[in-house]
Amino acid sequence: MYRWPRSNRVLAVYGSLISISAFIAALVMFQIPSDPENRAFLGLSLQRLTLIGCVALIGLLAAGFSFRTYGDKEWPKRIWELIVGEELFSKAILWGALAGLVLGWIAACIPFYRYGNFQDYFVRLHPLLIWFTFFSGVTFLLAWGARYGFYRPDIQTYKSVLNIAFILMTVFILIWILISSTGLGLRISEDYWYATGVPILPLQIFYALAIGGLFFLFEKSYFHVHVPKAAEILIFAVIWGAAAFLWAREPMLSSYFAPGPYLPDFQYHPYSDAATFDLASQFALIGQGINNGLFFDRALYMGFLVFLHALAGQDYSQVVALQAAIYAVFPAILYQLGKEMHSRTLGVILAVLATLRGLNGIAASSMIDLANQKQMLTDFPLAILMVWLALMLVKWLKSPNENYHYALWVGGIAGLGIMIRTHALFSIVFAVLLSVIVYWRQKSRALLVSLFLVTAMFVSVLPWGVVSGGSVFDVFISRIRTVLAERYSRIPSQSAPEPTPQVQVEEADIISAQPVLTEVQLLPIPVSIATNFFHNLVTSVFTLPVSPVFHDLRYILKEATPFWEQYWDGSMATGAVFIFILNLMLVALGVSLAWRSVKLPGLVPLGIFFFYQLANAMARTSGGRYIVPVDWVVFLYFALGLLQVLVWAAGSFGFLVDIEINTPESQTPWLWTSMKKAPAVLFLFLFIGATLPVSEMIFPLRYPPRSQAELLTGLENDGYLNEMGLTQVMLKEFSRQSPAFRVVDGRALYPRFYLENKGENKRRYPYQILAYPRIGFVVIGSNGINNVILPQDEVPYFPNASDVIVLGCQNGENMDALAVVVIAAQTKVYVREPVSPLQCPLQAPVCDGNGVCR
Predict the structure, then answer these.
(1) pLDDT value, residue 605
(2) Which one of 103, 390, 514, 711 is at 20 to 30 Å from 151 when CA atoms are compared?
(3) Contact status, residue 671 vs residue 258, Cβ threshold 8 Å
(4) d(Cα 811, Cα 667) in Å, to the nearest integer?
């Protein structure tokens, strides 16, 4: 323990700090503009002058106190005895200062706009709040040191940790210098270029640390030796259940991938990529197989949607609420990973951060490009598989001679991931590299484990590869061929790339599925990979907070910081630079501590992060939803570094925080008993893979093929043609004169009614902006996909997933409807308004801007 030997100097320094800070606060308050109507003297109101005078007086008194204590050794002793000797008085000072520190910190960090009509007062009081917080903090340190003393943390034990962290920090700074000086990752951009991912709010970090601290106390109180297995299961279930409750109940917001809600059913429906995945599952629901029996490499998520719809029906909000509840296993697996890498306390902190950040993701749907738990996209489920894969890798590497059967788990999970996004293939490359490193001197073992990895991967994809209409190898290479054809087929300019100019982008464009293109040059391949890779690093790191202020989510994304601008140029405020460097230091410390705790397994998340971001870069994609599968790695190491800093800080105050670190067991000789587990693991992944073809078989064929004549006859027999004012003879003649005329039946999905000059911003039929009111929807059936538009002034009844019969003019997959029969709980016949002559193409309505169309 360390106590101050010269109390007079300590008190003199204390008085100087209070004095200087008070004068600075008074100066800042003086410089804040005043209301012209209330100016009394020097352009300031009487109230402000009084406040500044009081603060300046405190500064003068503190300066006098400092001079007196420095020059007089007897008087400081009496002050010191008063602080230390009187227990009641000293405790009052100590805990009063602590309360002032906490309350002042909270008040100073609350942004002005949260005070509503009183914000002008708090703008003027803010310097005083900061000074009061500083004064309380310094007083608390003085009172604690006088009464209890301070302890020097055992930094020598962590000397190697700090050395490694310093080296990593140097590397991070050099990378940032490279990025900011060359523009790689910032100003040199390409297509599929998005902004920073979902942020973590400062207050959420505080909540996570507080809950982690409470769990640490609970663990030490009730589990002195070890946590029983039943308790581990309970912890996992509680985390999953809590996250499921919070995520499922978080209200949906309109987003690019689920706009709305729109009439006639006033529901959200998937759009763009989300609609692509959902439509593929809808085909299975009508008995025509996933994606209408056509091969698709990302089929695992489509099969998952089949089962979600089977359980939750066709209400989008209910389906994604169930999906979010299932996805809530993500924080629970992250808890397990944190526990294996360091401690249960770290695991709980990570679980809380992941849960709260998940809420941010749902709430930010309408503001930034992302993939969250309530969107029908493949990025978030892949994040679950990536953290599960990291957990299995850590378990394997902590005891490689005994737990090598976990390599089968790694391979199987990677195979499942490949059927969601092909990027997961790079995790197999990373795992094989690890097997070579671990078994460097036992080449046969390295070969065996690598064979485990590859075998399990193929077993996972085998059922889909066999029945999908392609081959097993198509699951791996079809997406790679597509990327090469679409993004590497053009010849890039050999001239030096020009920085992309900063542009103003509308919010609707920022959240679109395709980036808003400015003057983006097709870059040479090495430059393209480098700039996308660095952009992935930048957009991942800036998910950490760069301000201590308790801004709300919208303010952070739209006003406080520029990191969510699609073409951010790297500029940021001085305070943000400071906290950004602090974040990097904590991440570097976290990586170093992970190495110290479990050696190579501690670097597994970092390796997964870099290999996945390399896959992103090689696919020429970066930022936004593309980093979701691995951006959790950043806050994992950040949380570990921050936890260790708090442990050191607690040690300085005399509190021994003995966190039980889950270090690897002593290495055992090679055990062949693990081979016995291989068949069960392989069968499990074969079973999971087999759910894909099974999902195609459980629903009967709903819409058997019918000829045009059969459909017209049915319409006439049921009286629908009569309601339309048409006859079968008229329509047959129409069909003879216009071969584009078609009659199709099937399931109508995603009905959206738009008024004139309304629609979605992208030109995506049938939901693009048009100059007349209409309903747009998609029909799936024996004719495949048909995108339908029916001009109508109003459509009062049109349930999603209704049976429909559509008559209209067809152009590829698009249909301009003449009439639509909706068959659900009610049957409705809608005829085109205004009426068009029977000729293809049908005459488009012309509206006068006042809702009158002809």
Answers:
(1) 97
(2) 103
(3) no
(4) 67
**Hey, what long-range contacts does 280-286 have (CB within 8 A, 24 or more apart)?**
280/305, 281/305, 281/306, 281/309, 282/309, 282/747, 282/749, 282/780, 283/780, 284/695, 284/696, 284/699, 285/309, 285/310, 285/699, 286/699, 286/701, 286/702, 286/703, 286/746, 286/747, 286/780, 286/781
In whole angstroms, give the CA distance from residue 852 to residue 793: 9
Contacts of 579 (CB under 8 A, 6+ apart): 545, 546, 547, 548
* Alpha carbon distance 41, 746 (integer Å): 79
Q: What pLDDT is attached to residue 803?
A: 96
- Can you give the pTM of this predicted structure? 0.90
Residue 4, both tokens? 């101050």
Residue for token digits 């009286």?
Answer: 719
Amino acid, single-letter form, for residue 784: G
Helix (H, G, I), strand (E, B) or coil at 775: strand
Q: How far apart are the first and last CA of the chain?
A: 89
Euclidean distance between CA atoms 764 and 767, whole angstroms? 6
- Range 467-506 burial, b when 16+ CB lie within 10 A, else e: bbebeeebbbebbeeeeeeebeeeeeeeeebeebeeeebe
Q: What is the DSSP string of 295-308?
A: --TTHHHHHHHHHH
Give 328's DSSP letter.
Answer: T
pLDDT for the residue numbered 617: 92
Where are the alpha helices (H) located in 72-201, listed in sequence order?
A: 74-85, 87-109, 119-147, 159-182
783 Cα distance to chain centroid:
38
Per-block mean pLDDT, blocks of 10 residues, the chain (854 long): 61 88 86 62 67 86 82 68 69 87 88 78 83 90 78 76 94 94 82 88 94 88 68 93 96 91 93 94 95 89 95 95 97 96 94 96 91 94 97 94 92 95 93 93 90 94 83 75 75 42 34 39 81 94 92 88 84 90 96 93 96 93 93 96 91 75 70 84 94 91 94 93 91 91 96 93 89 95 95 94 96 95 94 92 88 82
Residue 680 CB: number of other CB atoms within 10 A?
10
At residue 379, the pLDDT reads 95
Predicted local confidence at residue 507, as pLDDT:
34
Measured CA to CA, the distance from residue 163 to residue 296 in angstroms comes to 49
Residue 219, phi-psi category: left (phi > 0), alpha (psi -120 to 50), beta (remainder):
alpha
Peptide bond into 796 cis (omega under 30): no
Give SS3 for 811: strand
10 Å CB burial of residue 1 (0-12, 13-18, 19+) is exposed
- For 846, the token pair is 């012309």
SS3 741: strand
Measured CA to CA in angstroms, residue 290 lies from 310, 376, 462, 554, 703 at distances of 14, 15, 16, 38, 15
